[in-house]
Amino acid sequence: MNTSESSVRDRLCEALREREEEIADRWVRLQLEQAVLSTDMSEHEVREEADLLISALASGLASDVPVERLVASRNELRQTVIELSLRRARAGASPTATSMAVLSLKEALLSAVQHTTRDSAELFSAAILVNRLLDAAGVLSFETYVEGREEIIQRQSRQLLEVSTPVVRLWRHVLAVPLIGTLDTARTQVVMESLLQAIQDDEAQVAIIDITGVPAVDTAVAQHLMHTVNAVRLMGADCVISGIRPPIAQTIAQLGIDLSTILTRATLADALGAAIQLTDQPAVDAGTARPVTA
Amino acid sequence: MTAPHATGVPILRLGDVLVTGLLNELDDQSAVAFTDELTERIAADGARGVLIDISRLEIIDSFVARTLMELTTMARLLGARVIVAGMRPAVAITLVELGLRLTGVETALNAEQGLTALGWHRMPQPAGEVRRDARR
To answer: Which residues form the STAS domain (chain B) (predicted)?
Structure first.
């Protein structure tokens, strides 16, 4: 068994080397026929990929690593499959198309082997060998594809988090956070962290949370808002919530959410006015001691 | 005199305001000692305000939170107003997430603002005043 496997492997290797051009041609043609290629990739690029993968396969088969682990352990081969898959993922090919493209290499390889032998037993074991080898490659390409997509999604959601929570300084000792989009636990966390840090850095006395861009307020969102307000108060600053539109005021009242302990205003302008008043009060007291009050 | 010295936290008097702080390791014993010492000092000095700086605290658990609330109540009974100043952002977030409320405790951003709220103002330094230092 072992000897026959190695002889089949030798034969496959030989076929790969001798008929490299032919296999690559056939593979490219197969992919074009199956229409698994997206329009973004030219035939030339596909051909280049094919050459790379076939030479990586040939050198992998020439080594003495077992076929099943060939794709996983041969670095060159692994890298080639990963790159192929990533390139297609970026070009917008579907995951099915990507792994089907890798799997269609089976047919090209087998037809090349068919030319070298007439022995059906040998051909059968060659087919099994090719199957094992390229199934692993197909799975790897699928996995890489999914990972690549996953990474893009994560990066985008991270960017979204950062972009949507800027803390701006509106006045001396007054900060504002315009919230846009729905408020969930993760975003509350980010808002809270950046707001509290900004309060500490700027020695702000009032923080305005503007919810004009928040489409709806339910009990969960109100809970998150209360948390943020409480944290701001613990820091020793005051909090004003602004941008409460009439429909949102109605929802809040109907849901029985108690925001009575929080200073609220309809517009950001009103909130800024209230905030300046809040910061002015201690400054007026201190006016007797502090000569410079503009 | 009982001389409670177990806490090792200084309590300074600035006019009718007492200024003190909490350090990171606050166990049952030192909390009791600190409470004892502070209430004694409030009564003895007739303090009207107390500023507790907690900018060194990296974590506030339910025990510390309760100690702070109790101190506030005790001081109020003795006629003094307590302000807790300088809580770190991370500590505030943890407190809120744990659902711990410092009910009745007044807070300030830092010691300076806390003292201002207690009515203690920095005097403008008169020009030409000679500074005193230890070497003279």
So the answer is: 7-118
